[in-house]
């Protein structure tokens, strides 16, 4: 960031404010003091031009002195950014008070110098001259305060983009200042501008021996009121903008936007809004550290969960198996399993735990362990489900449940025995036509005395079993189909008979990815089992639309 570029806009800001002050002085001389343009050109405008030039030079020097640490850093990057941040935050108020002090000192010194040139002392002043000096003081201080407020307001706005570019995490906390101080200074200054302007006009008319012109007084009051309201509105809007940034960032956190975990709120002031931003940023850092710890734990849990599952591709004599497990988050409640418990027999499992995240993953792990133990003990799929159900109900105690499909295949006789605990009915695809195997009972973990039933089916070469969780059909719910089941059946019917089991799985996953715009917040697991030898294709097919 090149802070040297700041010098140019500051110059034009000082020039604009100095010209505004010159305009106010000129209008006062024309319409209140009764001067003419010819007289102003001969005397006043030259003096005003000198004052404008003097003000420009003075404040450019002041800016260079106060901001020299910005474009001539002698520190490390972190310390440099913190010093720049502090200097930019201090600079508007420093400029304001410098202008006020300049007005308080320059006005009296100018009049003292004027008296010395005229060889007069303060003791020699008449009452009329004293009143004239007081009138001039009111006039000068009103102009100076007006310019100081403008400087403070526009410098704050000018520095905002530069502050926003600084890395917030490197900022060090400064001595706080209350928001009441900020608004009290602005309000008091605007009040004094109004008061001094009115008193100056009254003294000026009295010294000229003229009556007060009500319309001129109303015009002065109206102008000062409009000026004050405009300046005060600008500061209120700036305060509102800072609060809005804070509110928007909190909403981002509430909406669980991951990028918001690392985002910081720019600290734009030393008042309550700045302190609130500092506290929020510290809270963000703590949340970020805790979130990173949780992320590491979840990644470890994901690795463990993946190791609990078997290889996604397997072959059991005449049967080929392809599976896919896609958790919605780092870990999920879906699962599948393949267990060969004799040379001619193997079991397959697919399940879905209610809920998501870590609780579902823990129940999933427990269910897998129970299933593997009970399958090795022997029995039919229905008997195994009954034993697992009793043990799982003691673990979850009705707070969660598991839908599960369990099948056993005799690879020599090509015989399937299948039982379901509330899981979605799998499809037996024969001759390109999917037929659901509807054998279902209550999910595991609800009723320990539930009796499960099973179905026995003879498989033929070319048959395919399609088992899945609801994360698959939720994505298939399009306007062209009444349900996700209709959509899934339609896609299955379009399979080419020569496709390998791996290709069929990839086709389903590709179709799911294409329909991801429909939105799903669930895990997705697919398990395909093909019977008989199938010629494999070299390329995975593309979805048909």
Keywords for this entry:
disordered C terminus, 2 domains, 545 residues, single chain, 11 strands, alpha+beta, six-stranded antiparallel sheet, Phosphatase 2c, domain 1, five-stranded antiparallel sheet
Integer count of domains: 2
- The count of helical stretches stands at 14
User: Structural class, from secondary structure content?
Assistant: alpha+beta
Q: What strand order characterises the main sheet?
A: 1-2-11-10-7-8
Write down the oligomeric state.
Answer: single chain
Q: Runs with pLDDT <50, length 5+?
A: 534-545
Q: Say how many strands there are.
A: 11
Organism: Ammoniphilus resinae
Keywords: Cell membrane, Hydrolase, Membrane, Transmembrane, Transmembrane helix
Transmembrane segments: 6-31, 43-65, 96-117, 137-159, 179-202, 214-237
Pfam families: SpoIIE
Q: How do the strands and helices of this protein lay out in sequence?
A:
Blueprint: H1 7-31, H2 37-66, H3 68-71, H4 77-117, H5 127-164, H6 179-207, H7 214-254, H8 258-262, H9 272-308, E1 313-316, E2 319-326, E3 334-342, E4 345-353, H10 357-377, H11 381-396, E5 402-410, E6 415-421, E7 427-430, E8 433-436, E9 454-458, E10 464-468, H12 470-473, H13 484-493, H14 501-514, E11 524-531
Antiparallel strand pairs: 1-2, 2-11, 3-4, 4-5, 5-6, 6-9, 7-8, 7-10, 10-11
Transmembrane segments: 6-31, 43-65, 96-117, 137-159, 179-202, 214-237
Domain PPM-type phosphatase: 319-531
Organism: Ammoniphilus resinae
């Amino acid at each position: 960031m090149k802070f040297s570029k700041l010098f140019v806009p500051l110059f034009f800001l000082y020039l604009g404010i100095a010209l505004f002050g010159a305009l106010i002085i000129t209008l006062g001389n024309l319409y209140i003091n009764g001067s003419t343009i010819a007289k102003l050109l001969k005397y006043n405008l030259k003096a005003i031009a000198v004052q404008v030039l003097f003000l420009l030079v003075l404040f450019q020097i002041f800016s260079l002195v106060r901001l020299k640490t910005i474009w001539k850093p002698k520190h490390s990057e972190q310390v440099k950014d913190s010093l720049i941040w502090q200097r930019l935050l201090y600079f508007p108020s420093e400029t304001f008070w410098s202008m006020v002090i300049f007005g308080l000192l320059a006005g009296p010194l100018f009049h003292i110098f004027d008296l010395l040139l005229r060889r007069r002392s303060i003791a020699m002043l008449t009452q009329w001259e004293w009143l004239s000096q007081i009138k001039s003081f009111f006039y000068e201080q009103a102009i100076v305060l007006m310019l100081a407020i403008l400087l403070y307001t526009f410098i704050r706005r000018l520095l905002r983009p530069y502050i926003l570019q600084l890395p917030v995490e490197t900022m060090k906390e400064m001595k706080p200042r209350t928001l009441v101080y900020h608004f009290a200074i602005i309000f008091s200054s605007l009040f004094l501008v109004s008061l001094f302007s009115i008193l100056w006009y009254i003294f000026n008319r009295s010294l000229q021996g003229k009556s007060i012109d009500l319309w001129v007084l109303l015009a002065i009051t109206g102008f000062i009121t409009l000026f004050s309201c405009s300046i005060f509105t600008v500061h209120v809007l700036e305060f509102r903008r800072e609060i809005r940034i804070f509110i928007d960032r909190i909403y981002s956190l509430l909406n669980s936007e991951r990028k918001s975990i690392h985002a910081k709120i720019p600290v734009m002031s030393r008042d309550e809004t700045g302190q609130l931003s500092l506290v929020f940023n510290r809270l963000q850092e703590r949340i970020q550290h805790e979130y990173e710890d949780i992320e590491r734990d979840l990644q470890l849990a994901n690795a463990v969960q993946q190791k609990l599952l078997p290889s996604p591709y397997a072959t059991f004599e005449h049967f080929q198996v392809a599976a896919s497990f896609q958790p919605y988050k780092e870990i999920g409640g879906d699962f599948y399993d393949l267990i060969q418990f004799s040379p001619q027999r193997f079991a397959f499992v697919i399940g879905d735990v209610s809920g998501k995240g870590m609780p579902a993953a823990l129940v999933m792990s427990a269910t897998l362990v129970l299933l593997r133990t009970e399958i090795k003990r022997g029995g039919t799929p229905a008997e195994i489900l009954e034993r697992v159900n009793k043990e799982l109900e003691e673990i979850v105690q009705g707070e969660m449940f598991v839908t599960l499909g369990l099948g056993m295949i005799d690879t020599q006789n090509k015989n399937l025995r299948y039982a379901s605990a509330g899981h979605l009915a799998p499809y037996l695809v024969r001759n390109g036509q999917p037929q659901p195997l509807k054998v279902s009972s209550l999910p595991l973990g609800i009723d320990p005395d539930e009796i499960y039933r099973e179905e026995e089916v003879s498989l033929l070469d070319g048959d395919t079993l399609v088992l899945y969780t609801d994360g698959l059909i939720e994505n298939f719910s399009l306007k062209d189909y009444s349900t996700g089941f209709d959509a899934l059946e339609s896609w299955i019917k379009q399979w080419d008979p020569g496709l390998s089991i791996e290709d069929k799985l990839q086709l389903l996953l590709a179709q799911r990815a294409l329909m991801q715009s429909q939105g799903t917040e669930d895990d997705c697991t697919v398990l395909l089992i093909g019977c008989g030898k199938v010629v494999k294709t070299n390329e995975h097919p593309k979805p048909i639309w």
